[in-house]
Design goal:
The protein is 8% helix and 43% strand. It is mainly beta. The protein starts with a strand and ends in a 16-residue tail after the last strand.
């Protein structure tokens, strides 16, 4: 059979608050902030603020090969997530530097790569960014005295760290895991009428960009106190520690069957889709699995673009890092082509290791 669960993925912004509530469609009060999250912790659907009002306009949408992990982490590399309706409001504080606080939970990939984790631009020119260069994080920004960069400490592969940045109109301060790294003078820029962009990932379409994931993303229109920074950092840790563990298995397997690989035109007006492939298991490299075959759901279309993996030749032998499909609730509303499935006793897995996203063109889709 061929099943299509037709709900487009959007990531929306939920309110977090130290005190009062606010009106939908407007920036929250000075005591509130915006925290990127998913309804019910995972469902890519309408968000509600702390006052119970839907924040329909404040959302991010996946671009290029940006996608979600099972725990809601936004996975970047060859793409990212962009604000389309409220870019000016989100980017404005980061451009002016007058008053803001930014929180980023950073999940470094197994293989580190240079690039931007967050990019804010005005008139197409970068004004504020968080980047990785070599084995270090950097916060880059423009002020009245020109461009500046703060080294925010070293990072290691397969690690997680929290970055918090505050500005009060006179200085910009960087914290790693709530410990202050550096504080530098930053005089705000003059107001600009240019259009802003707010992008998680690499804004330039000519590079593959940073490969890793982000969570706990928060933005406030004031400089948080050190005590509040400690609270935000602890909340980010608590959320991660409270996530259920997901078991994985690594196998070497041979492709013996494929479901119908839908083209972007066939998926329209929806922009991404998964396809179930059938494999014979040749070896279990790690984890536990005692079956001779398995079904694997791979991404074959993202951001209205067909992925080359959809044309994988039969009898190809691959190493796959897999998680149970049911352990990935972010996939529940995705388009799924599964007409290869005849024996429902053969388990469903998800290509959690991103095998379908390897070897992609350097230039991601628009």
């Amino acid at each position: 059979m061929l099943s299509l669960q037709r709900t487009a993925l959007v990531l929306l912004i939920a309110l977090i608050s130290f005190s009062s509530s606010s009106v939908a469609g407007e920036w929250p009060s000075a005591q509130d902030g915006l925290r990127f999250a998913l309804q019910d912790g995972m469902t890519p659907a309408t968000f509600f603020g702390s006052e119970g009002t839907a924040r329909l306009g404040w959302r991010l949408v996946p671009k290029g090969y940006g996608h979600l992990r099972h725990d809601g982490v936004l996975m970047l590399g060859h793409g990212g997530f962009a604000a389309e309706q409220r870019a000016n409001e989100l980017a404005g504080p980061l451009v002016s530097g007058e008053n803001f606080s930014l929180a980023l939970g950073i999940h470094v990939g197994e293989t580190m790569s240079d690039g931007a984790l967050l990019t804010v631009a005005a008139g197409g020119k970068n004004q504020f960014a968080v980047t990785q260069v070599g084995d270090a994080l950097h916060v880059e920004f423009n002020g009245a005295s020109g461009k500046k960069s703060i080294a925010a400490g070293e990072i290691l592969p397969s690690t997680t760290t929290d970055l918090l940045v505050t500005a009060n109109g006179e200085s910009l301060t960087v914290y790693r895991d709530s410990a202050q790294i550096e504080s530098v003078q930053w005089t705000r820029q003059q107001e600009t009428s240019q259009e802003f962009s707010f992008y998680l990932g690499e804004l330039s379409p000519k590079v593959a960009g940073w490969s890793g994931g982000l969570d706990g993303i928060g933005l406030y229109t004031r400089a948080l106190t050190k005590e509040e920074i400690d609270v935000v950092h602890q909340e980010m840790k608590d959320v991660r520690e409270g996530r259920p563990a997901v078991e994985s298995v690594r196998v070497r397997a041979k492709l013996v069957g494929k479901s119908t690989v839908l083209t972007p035109a066939e998926l329209a007006p929806y922009r991404q889709g998964l396809t179930v492939f059938l494999y014979d298991v040749e070896a279990v490299l790690s984890g536990d699995y005692d079956g001779s075959q398995l079904h694997v759901a791979h991404w074959t279309a993202l951001d209205d673009t067909a992925l080359p993996f959809g044309g994988l030749p039969m009898d190809s032998v691959l190493e796959l890092q897999l998680e149970a499909y049911d352990d990935n609730p972010q996939l529940a509303t995705e388009n799924l082509s599964d007409d290869i499935v005849e024996d429902f006793s053969i388990p469903y897995f998800y290509d959690a290791g991103g095998r379908a996203l390897r070897g992609l063109p350097v230039t991601p889709p628009k």
